[in-house]
Design brief:
alpha+beta
Length: 180
Amino acid sequence: IEQLGEKSFKVKKGKKFYFVKRFGEDSEAFFDFKKVCSDIYNLGVPCPEIYVADKKTYDIALTYIDGVNAFEYLTNNHITDKQLENLYRANWMAKMNKGAIEFDPDKWMFVGDKIYYIGYKLNKYSEKDKDKLIHEDIKKWYFTREFAEYAREKGVEIDKSLIKTEFETNREIIRRFFNP
């Protein structure tokens, strides 16, 4: 057992690892978390799947995503075309199923080119969510001023020489989609 947070653990059973979240006496938080996890999975958004939810101990075990946090990855690397495609696919799946998820990089994990949502937050889709990824959140996935500010809030300084202008970032996004 490896403690990951105050109430979260990495646990090995047989040859598999699981992410275990303990809720102690907080049954409401347990049932809320369980519902959100199930709802996100049912949207078709790649995310950890519930392995077991124990109603007696209020523990939930999910598949463990053995990858790198997208934020940590992006502080030193550029998002790949396939990762970007998978991010847009997750957005499309959520939107088509009337769900709104968070697109801050620290809410996602990369396993190679695969991407998994670990934000565990889901809202009902609204008109303000329509193009939020395309017009706002995507700027946190490239070396932009917005990404540098986001990183600074998390205590990470980004080399200023890596920061691209909005024009350069937009040109890169267009190049990836229209001139692969």
